Every structure is written in structure tokens, then in C-alpha cells.
Amino acid sequence: MIDKNKILNSSGPKKISKYLADNNLDINLVVLDTTARTAVDAAKAIGVQVGAIVKSLVFNLKEDLTGDDHMILALIAGDRQCDTQALGKLTGYDGKLLRPDADFVKDKTGYSIGGVSPLGLPSDAKIYIDKSLNRFKEIWAAAGHPFCVYKCTYNDLISHSKGIESDLISI
């Protein structure tokens, strides 16, 4: 049996709850009975189409010239794949878009893989949003833990994450 209070009081959901309170956002975190680690898992647990799940894909863009690392977050519809070539071009950096390890993800986002939320990220995070998510009235995103999610609209996702819309980053 899932201990919902324990999950809500873990670091990721607590960070999001603080972000919501600090920004006067009326969003409820939902703890699921099963994992939402993948889009398919989340869709089954919530009872929605896979496309209504927001996949949070973290990348490390390593600049060619300086070797600097930049955290890039692509918010992609659950039934689509990220076009990493298009995403890399959108960032404006010359470099390689790499899949980071779990330590990079936790260090840059404050969340563990499987629970990366578009909320509460550092102000220098570069966030790109798949425009195909707009086909759903409601969408569901991770809330800091593999068993925790929240519901919002596409426009809310853009507003709350301060992400950049793109119809080029998913295929």
C-alpha cells in the first residue's frame, strides 16, 4: 500500500508545494497508487490517453567552444518522441545534446529521474514545450516523485514553466 503522506512529504513534492504556495497557484498534487515513471504507466494510472501525459526529458547540452554544460528540458507529449536535432538547433548553442546521468538530473533540477517536474526549476533552465500537447483540454505532468502528478491546461504549463512553445521538437 502506498503511503501518500510520505510521498507528499518527500523532497520533490515538498519543493513543488512550496513553489505553488510562493506563486499563489491553485494546483493539487495527486499521489497515484502505481508508478507514473513512464508516460504509459501514468496514463494507465490516471485513466487518460498517453498523449495527455507530459514527458519531462532532461538533456545536457555541452558547448563545443567552452565545454559549458546547459540543462535543457523538453516537455513532450507522451505519445510522441523528442526530435533531438531540432531541439539542439532551437537552443542556439553550438554543441552536443547528451542524455545525462541521474546525478546531473538531480543536481540541475532538484528532482530524480521519473519525477522531474516542469515546476520549481532554476531560473536559468531552458525549457521547450511540445505544441502537440495543446490538443488536450487537460494534461498531466510529474510532481517531483514517480508516484506524484498534477493536472493543468496547456496554457498553464507554458505560463508556470516559462517554457518556449515549439511544433518542431516532437515527431
Q: How do the helices and strands line up, and which of them pair or pack?
A:
Blueprint: H1 4-8, H2 11-22, E1 29-31, H3 39-46, E2 54-63, E3 69-77, H4 84-91, E4 95-98, H5 102-109, E5 126-130, E6 139-145, E7 148-152, H6 154-161, E8 164-166
Parallel strand pairs: 3-5, 5-8
Antiparallel strand pairs: 1-7, 2-3, 2-4, 6-7
Any overview of this molecule?
By secondary structure, the chain is an alpha/beta fold. It is 29% helix and 27% strand. The chain is built from 6 helices and 8 strands. Strands 4-2-3-5-8 form a 5-stranded mixed sheet, sandwiched between helices. Strands 1-7-6 form a 3-stranded antiparallel sheet. The radius of gyration is 15 Å and the shape is globular. It starts with a helix and ends in a 5-residue tail after the last strand. 37% of the residues are buried. The mean pLDDT is 94.
Question: What is the ordering of alpha helices and beta strands?
Answer: HHEHEEHEHEEEHE
Poorly predicted runs are none
Helix content bin: 25-40%
Mean pLDDT: 94
**What percentage of the residues does DSSP assign to strands (E)?**
25-35%
**Oligomerization:** single chain
- Computed CA radius of gyration, to the nearest angstrom: 15 Å
Number of helices: 6
Tally of DSSP β-strands: 8
| Shape, per Cα inertia axes | globular
What's the arrangement of strands in the largest beta sheet?
Answer: 4-2-3-5-8
Q: Outline the biggest β-sheet.
A: 5 strands, mixed
Q: What separation lies between the terminal Cα atoms? A: 37 Å
Structural class: alpha/beta
